[in-house]
Amino acid sequence: MEKILELISREVEGAFAANGYDRKFGRVSLSNRPDLCEYQCNGAMAAAKEYKCAPFLISDKVADSLRDNHLFCTVDSVKPGFLNLRLDKEYLAEYLRQMHADGERLGCEKSKEPRKIMIDYGGPNVAKPLHVGHLRSAIIGESVKRIGKFMGHTMIGDVHLGDWGLQMGLIITELKERKPELVYFQEDYEGEYPEDAPFTISELEDIYPTASAKSKEDEAYKEAAMQATYELQHGRKGYQALLTHILNVSVSDLKRNYENLNVSFELWKGESDAQPYIPDMVQKMKDDGFAHLSEGALVVDVKEDSDTKEIPPCMILKSDGASLYNTTDLATIVWRMQDYCPDEIIYVVDKRQELYFTQVFRCARKTGLVGPETALKFLGFGTMNGKDGKPFKTREGGVMRLEYLVNEINEEMYKKIADNHIVEEEEGRKTAKMVALSAIKYGDLSNQAAKDYIFDVERFTSFEGNTGPYILYTIVRIKSILKKYQAEKTLPESAQILAAHSESEKALMLEISKFNAMMEAAFVDTAPHKVCAYIYDLANAFNHFYHETKILAEPDAAVQAGYICLLDLTKRALEICIEVLGFEAPEKM
Ligand code: ARG
């Protein structure tokens, strides 16, 4: 369906043209004074300059031509030259009826030029537990992916595991200290390696921090870890077998954690998968004359004349020939292009890595790893802070594990829900999890991704205000009204959304009608917060309507049936939105 703003603009543009003015002045926008009107057009102000006359002369003429237009109930020309517009109730109702008839998509058309977009998000590190720093990438990336899918694009999520580098050597070194007898450490071992991992996930999670701490104090230990890393990367069989175990144990734990967050990935590739592509890539960069030695390291210059700040060269190999985080990201681009040839790659990463990605992107373009037809986009997110305004920590000041955070909020939610005494224990737990997830995700997504935000458990879990639970509460309220209606009556076939009977009903209808434009903008701007803003306004408009309207007690059957259709449409719009945000609503709460 065409966006309602387009339809309105077209009429007003036509009226400008009919009066001899350029159409372009007829663009309409949402009113910024909802008390005065619903839509507005300020084009007469600009047109006045071009046609050298008073703006209100133009707005008056245009308003006259629009007066009988079936889209509007009022068109006011207001000095000095504004056009204030209100939509005709019947026209608005018809627009909503068409949305409603388009059951799954509510009039939001899929993109006419579907693209293939890879999205790099999550970015967990193997053997290190997920911490809250990983939460934002997972939540934002998942939502961006779902919005893209809804708009008809092929979205391929890749978790891009951090499974390469010193952390692996550290784990191997610590494991060797603890269990030196394992066959993985015997250099002359020729047999098959055991199928079962020589550690559990909880051991693994203890091994890494221990090793990391020791390496900071003990030079020899660090030396050993670096040596182990080197040997692993140069094909030592026992270590590679250990790497496989570390990966397996860690990945199944990560999958469980992500599942709890309603986050899933199409690809479980990691940094290690990029390693085989490095030698050829580096060779080509050298052959093509892009890479040169600088203080022993191999670098590619990426500064540009228009830079306002210094962009350092992109380092490809260290002076000892070792590859870096950069090298891995570049080689990852190589296989992504080779195997998937995406139209775009989006990276959902902490915004502190922005300069780094500028270097990587420029290097990839300059050296021809990606052509001009592939877009590279960095979607940097801000820090999740605690109430003290500093990065979120545990009460003891340590790094908060994601799992603990989620459990804490589940518990908090369960207490609230149990207080309501409407659900059984088991169902209560399930509901609490759903509501808790909405609190976490909405709390995050309702902010612009690039901004830091304060993770405020009390506020996020509240059933009132701009929160996930408030949105779910609204959906549950609608579901319950629909159920009560259905328990007593069957919706007549002739039921349809009718022209609004009250201001609050019209306000609700106006909010709903913005659905397709909102979803498109959320995709184009990779901005899940636009979906949140829409559902918050929609939920408010619905609740206002609900408080002012007797729905189940409405005596006129046709009016009542119209309300039920409108409620159903509201519910669907809210449900599609929370689906793309990555959470669901329970039946009761
Ligand atoms: N593993 C990294 C971290 O924990 C994030 C990876 C981001 N993605 C990328 N392609 N570099 O900071």
Shape designation: globular
Distance between the termini: 35 Å
CATH class division of the domain at 468-581: Mainly Alpha
* Radius of gyration using CA atoms only: 29 Å
Uncertain residue segments: none
CATH topology of the domain at 468-581: Isoleucyl-tRNA Synthetase, Domain 1
Structural class, from secondary structure content?
alpha/beta
Instruction: Say which CATH homologous superfamily of the domain at 468-581 is assigned.
Output: Isoleucyl-tRNA Synthetase, Domain 1
Mean pLDDT: 95
The small molecules bound here are:
arginine
Strand order of the largest sheet: 1-2-4-3
So how many helices?
21
**Percent helix range:** 40-55%
Proportion in β-strands: 5-15%
Largest sheet: 4 strands, antiparallel
Total beta-strand segments? 13
CATH architecture label of the domain at 468-581: Orthogonal Bundle
Write up this protein.
- By secondary structure, the chain is of the alpha/beta class.
- Among the domains are: 4-87, Arginyl tRNA synthetase N-terminal domain (Gyrase A, domain 2), CATH 3.30.1360; 166-260, no CATH class; 468-581, Isoleucyl-tRNA Synthetase, Domain 1.
- 53% of the residues lie in helices and 10% in strands.
- The strands form four sheets. A four-stranded antiparallel β-sheet has the order 1-2-4-3. Strands 6-5-10-11 form a four-stranded parallel β-sheet, with helices on both faces.
- Helix 2 crosses helix 3 (55-66) and helix 17 (468-488) runs antiparallel to helix 21.
- Arginine binds next to strand 10.
